[in-house]
Known about the structure:
By secondary structure, this protein is an alpha/beta fold. The protein contains nine helices and 16 strands.
Amino acid sequence: MILQKNKLKNIVIIGTGGTIAGVGEAGNTSSYVAGQIEVNNILDAVEGITKLANLSAENIINVDSCDITQEDHIKISNYINELSKDDNIDGFVITHGTDTLEETAYFLNLTVKTNKPVVITGAMRPATATSADGPLNLYQAVVLARSEKAIGKGVLVSFCDCIYGARDVHKVSCFRVNAFDQKDFGCLGYVRGDEVYFYNESIKLHTTESEFDLKNVQKLPYVAIACFFADADVEILDYLSKTSKGIVIAGAGCGECGKIWSKKIKELVKNGFPVVRSTRVASGLVASEKSVNEYGICAGTLPPHKAHILLSLCLTKTNDLEKINEIFKKY
């Protein structure tokens, strides 16, 4: 990795694949194969990006983001943690598929140990499409990663002119270029031209303030997600309690389930098995005045797939339900 010494910031671009590296029929925005182009070649298509910062790039993986595993999450986090020790490196940009971008972002938000900007971006259209959105998103991600304003803000997502925080970013469209939002919370700010504008930030713990440490972790405890729906078979909870170390419920409304499911959940938590209640609803809060041993752990505003990540990390530290509940309140 060659780092230049001049007035420009040194930014490391980490490629992981996704639509931004996708290839399909020229002009077509669909029917493509993700993760085909190396990140260096993506950079070559972004006019003016080398004037923003000294860039070095490397592909860690190159896949559709639906194929990214928690082992990949650990690999990316460890890679950033190692490089962040270099005082000559000022920030990081990760190119990523959008389907699971928010999961990688949240995992890194809880496990990277640096205040240096870590920015994730991607694209909704492949590189071969007419009006591909990847080049502008990557340009704006570098603008954000080089900004002094982004220091200490946790892991950020730069997408379609907007800045989002890793904890609350949520994919809201399966095809539009403005594919992300923060549900009830809006965005943190904007990137316009070569300038960054922040208006909000998360108050939840992250990065250097996080208690999660991956130094001796090679694989996370497996946590399952069970979706409740009308007339859902409760036997899935029996199965998952035997094949996983914890369960996140994608419940109805405020994490609610029918009487049969609620009875089974109560049995599991009374036996010390971690069950987190989240919701399949797009926005709102899952909270309860009932005890943890009666209702389970509340996910707050975390959707099921992010509650799954936090519970997996919690289980590297403790199996105590009360302690896990307190951790969920902090993150």
